[in-house]
Amino acid sequence: MDIFLFITQLLVVLGCIVMGTRSSGVGLGLWGGTGVAILVFVFGLAPGAPPVDALLIVLSVVLASSMMQAAGGIDWMVSIAAKVIAKNPKQITLIAPLTAFLFSVGAGTSNILYPLLPVIYDLSYRNGIRPSRPLSLSVVATGVALACSPVSAAMAAMIALTDTAPWNFELMDIIKVTLPAAIVGIFLASLFVRRLGKDIADDPEIQAKIASGKLVAPGATATEVKAEVTVTKEGRWAAIIFLLGVLAIVVFGLFSGLRPLGAGDDPQPIGMTPIIEIIMFVAGTLIMLVAKPKVADIPTMTVFRAGMVSAIALFGLAWLTNTFLGEHSKLVADGIGGLVDTAPWIFALGVFLVCVLTTSQSTATNSIVPIGLAAGIPLGLMSGMWAGAFAGIYLLPTNGSQIAAANFDESGSTKLGTKLVDHSFFLPTLILAVATIAVGSLFGVLWGG
């Protein structure tokens, strides 16, 4: 009977996740909350703990980053990234993805990529490089970036899950595994991606467009294409203040002795959760005072809207999984734990598949990481696999950045396909995921704890 109830309740959880995926957006959170209602009122389970810490981190980060965007800070960051890419046009298949990755890490969002897409296209095509190569890998690289950013919603969820007893795994314990793993993964993936697809000279579709006059031949475009952004002094200061906030979070994560002490007879440095929240509020306030964005415009910012949707989805789904695992943690630990001990890659596959289905790294984190914790996976190993699996959000051609990349590619080399697996992002997604998971697992075992 216990197994029957477990399977029935698991089906409720999975069913709500599937229905939430079909609804997308805030529907993920609503279905998560509905699943909690079913588990509590129908099966008599005790409600799990809502993910309060993760939600508060997300809200504070979204507020600060929205202030930065309103002041023009993201536009300034885009202009800097465009200059970096333009300095190395011949190596654009590596430089563009790395630049997109690093700026997404700093900003905590992949939205920074959109204005860079026409720059990547123009520079690659003008230098005779098939645009689909740097475009596809740049898009996918922003997915794994959120496993390395101190201010992403996915990292907020991961910290809230692991920065407590008995694990006490802090921000820098995660980043010291995920950041180098992702960088090495992008480098390895670029070696494969630069060989995908036909060269421009050998592609009959591109050559036909050139012959018909619909497309200018590579090297013939004389004008310099810049990111379509407006750079202002206020935007520069907003971005600098925000990035200094990110740096402060990293410093406090590295040196716990710098943090204030908590209360009690044996006071210990306070955890990183309140540190992140405090620094983001201070950064947002400084941006408001120095860059003077219109505060009334904050709710209209794309970062704010996306962040609020993520928070709602995080609330419902994390609450649902906490309620289910709170009742069955021993069964999960005994049953799945042995399976994961034999084949740890099953955890990575779980995160990857949830990313594919929900296109949300924070949802995948809250759905699968608690299962990994209950199964006893070493946290270093878990962090490495977690980062690489984030590439899964681009396995299907349904993301806005994928559609935008295809639209900006006037040569037509970047395709969305018609059969779900024949698009330009499919192989780069698999290659980057496998490379980062493999490297991350190694780093996690060596020094991840």
From TrEMBL:
Transmembrane stretches, start-end: 30-47, 54-74, 94-114, 135-162, 174-193, 237-258, 270-291, 303-322, 342-359, 371-396, 425-447
Alphabetized Pfam families for the sequence: DcuA_DcuB
Record's keyword terms, sorted: Cell inner membrane, Cell membrane, Membrane, Transmembrane, Transmembrane helix, Transport
Residues forming coiled coils: none
Locations listed in the record: Cell inner membrane
GO cellular component: plasma membrane
UniProt topology in membrane: Multi-pass membrane protein
Chief location bin: membrane
Record PANTHER family: ANAEROBIC C4-DICARBOXYLATE TRANSPORTER DCUB
Protein name per Swiss-Prot or TrEMBL: Anaerobic C4-dicarboxylate transporter DcuA/anaerobic C4-dicarboxylate transporter DcuB
